[in-house]
Every structure is written in C-alpha cells, then in structure tokens.
C-alpha cells in the first residue's frame, strides 16, 4: 500500500495537470505510427537518411520492418564523465545488428562541466545549456526516421536537457545509458579540508591543485553525490535505465554488457513489436513523484528543484515546490554520501546501491510500484543488481542487509525522518533549503545581513576580515534573468571557515548553489529574483534576516514596503565567453519555481 501522503500529493499533481497532460498525450499519440516512420518520407528524404550506411543496413532499412535506433550523445573528451562514451556508438551499433535493427548517431548535444566553470564567466551559460541540449535533442530527432532512441548523458544539465528533448518526441521509446563513476580517489572529506585550508591561506595553490587532481583522477563521473550522480539515481528510479546500471564503473565487462542490453531493450520497445512503450506515456505523474521520493531519500542535488519541475512540464505535468516540500516531510533520509556524509558513490553502490534503496522505499510504501519502466510494468524489477553469470548479463535480488549502515540504511532505521529539503517562504519570497548536510543546531539562523551583487565581492570581504561575525550573506542579481543563475559553490569554503570559527552564518541568494552544497545553511533560488524587482533587492546591510529550515521561514525583520528595489548594472554579465548569444534566453526564461526554463512550461 502506498503511503497516504504520497498518494495525496500524487493525486493533487494529477488533478492540477489534467488538462495539460491530456493535451500532451493527445499530441504524442497523433505522432505515433505502427509502421516505420521513415516509410512516410519521400524517396529522396529516405535516401539522404541512409546514404552513409553500410549496404546491409540500407537493405534492412528499405525492406522489412527493421527498427531504426537513434543515438543522441553528449560525448566529448574533456568531461571525465562523458569521455567513456567515445566507443559506445560502436557497441550499440553492434548490439542493434545482432538484434535485427540498425543504430546510428542521430546527433550530438553540448556537455559543459560546472566543475570547470565554477566561479568563472562560463558558469553563466550552465543552466541555459540544459535548454540548449533539449533543443539539440529535438534537432537530432527531427528527421523523423527513427523508431526509438538511446541517450548518452550523465552530468548536471545534460540528463535533464535530454529528458526534456526526449519528451518532445514522447511517441518514441527512450532508454538512457549511463557511463558510471570513476574509481575512488582522494576522499571527499580530505578534499574539502584542503579547500578550506586554502581559503584560510593555510595551503598553497600547488597543494590545492594536487588534492583536486587526486580527487578527479580518471574517466567517469565525479564520485561525490552531486547533480550528476543524482541524475543517475533519478533515471533508474524513473525506469529509464536498466536496473542497477547507474554506478557500474567505466571500462568493465559488466559496463559493456549493460550498454549492449540497453540497446537491445530500446529496440524491443518500438511500435513495430508487441511491447510498445512511448516515453511520454511511460513517464506519468507517479514516475515524477517516485523521482522526488528518490531525491529526498538520498539527499540529492538542490538543482533538481529546478530540473524536475522543468522535466515534468515537458510531459504536461505541473510539479511545484510545494509538492517537493510536502513529499520531503514523508520521506526518510536513507543515505549518507558526500556532501551529506564522508562516503562516495562507489561506497554507496558497494553497500547495496540503488537496488537496496528502491526495495526499502517500496517496502515502506513510499514509491508507486506499478509504474511503467523500460523493463516493463512495475518498479519491483529495480530492486535488484546486475551481474555477469558465466559471462552473461543477469540480475539477482539486491542485498537484504546494508553492507555499511554509515552509508546506506533501511527504512526502519533512517538517518533522519525527513528528506531535508524544504520550501522557505516569507517577505523575501520563496526559496529552497537543503538541511540534510547541515547540523541540526544550524537549521535556524538569525543574523544581520551583508549584501553583495557578486560572489567575487564576498570573497574580497572575507579576505579583508569584514565577515568575522554572525552574518547572513545575501548575494543577489544571480537569478536566471540577471546572469543565467550560476552556481555559487566557491562561496562554501569561506563561509565554512566563518562557521567553524563559531559564528552564525547563512547564505541567501537568487542564484544556485550545487549538488555539492554542504554544511552551511543556504536559502537558494530565491524568487522573485532581484533582476525582476524581488524583495531580495530591497535588503540592506544590517537588516536582520531569519532563515528557518524547521518552520520554512525566509524573512527580513524589517518592513520593506516603503523601500525601492536596488537596480544593478548587469551589462558586464552579458558579453564575453559567448554570453552575448544568450540575450534571448535571459529575456525569455521563467522563474526558478517554474523550472527556470525558456520553454512555455509544458503548456501550463
């Protein structure tokens, strides 16, 4: 039986979304066909579509009912998480041939790394890259020659962008194929220690670079539980991955076996066979509620308060921050992975991984068990783990006991009774806060404000010793309309230093933080944002600000009604590093609580 709170929120979403969801389903059903879509194209169109194919593939595509599989890839050499994708198309093409189909790369999408652009001008393109990826996915599939698609993407904005793009072609089946995390390097706690020592001037730049290189040392996803690895958990709990495939390391026989099986599975789901599973119908409001439950149970990335809303909207589903906050109250925290603990995702996988987690959540009635997945009907198939049985891919039940209760626990012994993600409201607007990595005694902070318009100014004030006191650091003009809503993760080391000195410290911003946000309480994604005259632009130095992660309060203890919002000169943020090309995005982008998307919110 599903938990009453889960049922209530799901029913509320379904009712709120009824008209937009019905319109979406009607659109994708109108686009569906039970004969190869390419057959409806003109002869010249078809000839262009397979001109470069091998002779055997041309025969398969022109005659019979061979399924055509699109590969949409975010491969590039620079991103460690995406570098393993270099050889995936060859593996997928071979697997497709053996299954009687044809696979080809339909298109590529951009993939940028927030870890590289943190604190740099390029970070102001990061969130917008999600919508560029969605647009690129649509272009890749626009030739209308494919019967299904597989998607190669992992990191922060890439998976959400691919999902939005896939849902725009919701009549096609979709399987997402992960690449897996890099092996464990320097521990996350040691990395964080060096960063903080550097912020205090107690470690050299050479020592910092050495530590970072030992932490991020090889192919695969970064091993902390940030947005990239939260993406992978979400794809699995939403049924878009094969079971247990998220956290298998690159370059292993099991990784390749899962990639081959994913291609075979995608071909088995086309309208040409008896198991037609269009992704737009597969992902319903229950699937998105399951995703939110997984986010809370694992203490996942705050970026998904934006991404899940935007992804749901692409399927005609109206998901709100109120839904996320209410679900958090019902879902216990079952994992401790950095920044919510000292372990990394390899330790999480070894302790039982997603299979253990999903079984525990199913047993507690916290997931909808009867959703559709790429494996068929029901989420129970995901309470397992993959293995090679005499060289062949097979699945076995997930462990019944956690291998390490410091990392992963069952539903009867959680780390805390709630997910630790909360909606904040008050006279400063709406925001979200993640408390799962914050000590309980710091869940409520009330202190004088110090207002900044740029994170560089915060760093300068810290180095000058101006912040050595109880302080709520307010960083405004960081929202999507102002400068693309960059992450402000580089503020965490200095603010952590202040907190460790015994000061009461919090951050309030209309910008983002990160999947790696940690021990300092932070009210983020404040909306309305400063660039739209939001109340955050009315805060002045010395105003007393209250951030209450227990009651959900974000308030300045001053009457703001007579104050005018400050107006900032943002022109310097609109040029250089390609930012001048994104003026239309800054103009069209919606609010943070609507997903900070340039699209029309799914017809809402």
TrEMBL record:
Pfam families: ILV_EDD_C, ILVD_EDD_N. Residues 69-380 form the Dihydroxy-acid/6-phosphogluconate dehydratase N-terminal domain. GO terms for cellular component: cytosol. It catalyses: 6-phospho-D-gluconate = 2-dehydro-3-deoxy-6-phospho-D-gluconate + H2O. Pathway: Carbohydrate metabolism; Entner-Doudoroff pathway. GO terms for molecular function: 4 iron, 4 sulfur cluster binding; metal ion binding; phosphogluconate dehydratase activity. Residues 407-596 form the Dihydroxy-acid/6-phosphogluconate dehydratase C-terminal domain. The keyword 4Fe-4S applies. InterPro entries: 6-phosphgluc_deHydtase, Dihydro-acid_dehy_C, DiOHA_6PGluconate_deHydtase_CS, ILV_EDD_C, ILV_EDD_N, IlvD/EDD_N. Keywords: 4Fe-4S, Carbohydrate metabolism, Gluconate utilization, Iron, Iron-sulfur, Lyase, Metal-binding. Binds 1 [4Fe-4S] cluster. GO terms for biological process: D-gluconate metabolic process; Entner-Doudoroff pathway through 6-phosphogluconate. It comes from the Bacteria. Catalyzes the dehydration of 6-phospho-D-gluconate to 2-dehydro-3-deoxy-6-phospho-D-gluconate. This is Phosphogluconate dehydratase. It comes from Acidocella aromatica.
